[in-house]
Specification:
By secondary structure, the chain is an alpha+beta fold. The chain contains 3 helices and 3 strands.
Length: 119
Amino acid sequence: MPKPIDPSSGGASMNSIQRSIIEADVIESIRTIYDPEIPVNIYDLGLIYEIDVRDDAFVTVQMTLTSPACPVAGTLPGEVEEKVRETAGVTDAKVELVWDPPFSIDRIPEHVRLDLGLL
């Protein structure tokens, strides 16, 4: 896999292929984290709203929780941030917890809702 180029070293910016590879790897890392109450990973559950990979391979993730009273509200964003940081090619990461739009089961892909008996 191509290594991201550090713009501070005088090299060129990452190209779109490098950015896409890192984003795909970040998604796979996030897919290893499961909601403690629902047997589905948080990516497929629809809790990840956005993944942004900058030219310097700094990754920002916008995510939500199933509710503000979620029992893992204090730990899950930090767990996601750590998994993203550990992803190959990522230089650093930040997770932003957002509440708008609020989570709803409509964010869960149809095949996952079917597996959960929500259809």
